[in-house]
Amino acid sequence: MQKLIITAALTGAEVTRAQQPALPITPEEIAVAAEECVKAGAAMVHLHARHADGSPTQDKETYRQIIAAIRRRCDVIVQVSTGGAVGMTPQERLAPVTLAPEMATLSMGSVNFGDDVFMNHPADMEVFARAMQEMGVKPELEIFDSGMLSTASRWLKKGLLKSPLHVDFVLGLAGGMAGTPQALLYLTQQLPAGSSWSVAGIGPAQLPLGTLAILLGGHVRVGFEDNIYYRKGELASSNAQLVARMARISQELGREVATPSEARALLGLKPL
Ligand code: KMH
Ligand code: ZN
Questions:
Q1: pLDDT (0 to 100) of residue 169
Q2: Which of 69, 72, 77, 94 is least enclosed by beta carbons within 10 angstroms?
Q3: What is the Å distance from ligand 2's center to 81 Cα?
Q4: Mean pLDDT, rounded, for 171-185
Q5: Quick check: is 272 in a domain?
Q6: 74-118, pLDDT tens digit by residue?
Q7: Domain-embedded: residue 28
Q8: From CA 66, how far away is CA 47, in angstroms rounded?
C-alpha cells in the first residue's frame, strides 16, 4: 500500500475561537499550526484565510502572507481553498489560485450546507478548473455527494480535468452524504481508474472514516475545519493532536506516513 498522506485542514471558514480556542487565525498562527502538524505527520495543509477579526476572506494578499509564513517554517504541500465561505462570489473565491499554489480545492457541485447552500454552479467551476490548468495548480476535487463524481468523469472526457484525479470525499456534513463506512465504500467504487482519494469526515465521522481510509489505501484529512473535538465532549488541544492520532493509528496498522516530498511524488506534483 502507498504511504498515507495526512492533510491538516487548519482553520476553515466557519469555526470560531469561541467554539475552539486553539483555532489558528492570523498568518503567523496558521504557520505555527502548519509546522506542528508537519512534525506530527501531515504532508499537506488545506488553507483558509481570515481577517484579523476572525471573519473569512479569500483576499490574495492574506493568502500570500500565510503561504510565506508557512514556507519560512516548514516544507509542506500547500493547498488553498477555492470554496471560501458560503455566499462569497466565484471571483472572490478564485483569488488565491492566482498565487500559483501547489494545489487548490475544486468543488464538483452544489450542496446544502447546514441551513445554507454552498453554491458551485457548473459554469463557475469550469472557470475554476481552467484557471487551475493555466496556473499549473493541481485540483483536489471536493466530493460531497455521488453525482459530483459523475461530473468529474464527464469533465475528464471534456479535458477540463486531467487524469489521474485526486479527490477528497467530504462526508457527514448536514445536507451532504452520510459520514458512514457504507457511503465511503460506495464512493470509492465510483472513482475513475487511477484516481487517488482522501476522506474528510465531519465531526464524529472524522476518526472512523479516517481509520477506514487507512485500511482501504486512501488518504486522510483531519483538522479544525472539519472537527474541533478529540472525543465526544472533549475539545482537541490543537490541529496537530488530531494529525498525531491519525499517524499513530496508521503506524499501528502497518502503513507508513508520507513526508511532504513523498506525498508530492504520490500526487504527481513537482518537487519543491
Ligand atoms: N467553507 C465551505 C463553504 C473548500 O475549502 O474548498 C467550503 C469549503 C470547501 O471549505
Ligand atoms: Zn475548506
A1: 99
A2: 72
A3: 5
A4: 98
A5: no
A6: 999 999 999 999 999 999 999 999 999 999 999 999 999 999 999
A7: yes
A8: 8
What percent of the chain stands above pLDDT 70? 100
pLDDT, residue 152, reads 98
- Distance (Å, whole) CA 255 – CA 131: 35
Is 192 within the bounds of a domain?
yes
> Where does 175-267 have alpha helices with state H?
181-189, 206-216, 239-252, 260-267
Q: Which residues contact 59 (CB under 8 A, 6 or more apart)?
A: 49, 51, 95
Residue 23's CB is within 10 A of a number of other CB atoms, namely 23
User: Domains in the chain: how many in total?
Assistant: 1
Asked if the structure places residue 214 within a domain, the reply is yes
The CATH number of the domain holding residue 47 is 3.20.20.70
Q: Would you state the pLDDT for residue 94?
A: 98
pLDDT computed for residue 113 by the predictor: 97
Task: Show the DSSP H helices in 56-172 as ranges.
Answer: 60-73, 90-94, 122-135, 147-158
Which residues, judged by CB distance below 6 Å to any ligand atom, belong to the binding site of ligand 1? Answer: 12-14, 81-83, 85-86, 105, 107, 113, 118, 142
Question: Would the pTM of this model clear 0.85, i.e. be above it?
Answer: yes
Shortest-distance Cα residue to atom 7 of ligand 1: 83
**Residue 107's domain spans which residues?**
6-267
Contact 166, 137 (CB under 8 A): no
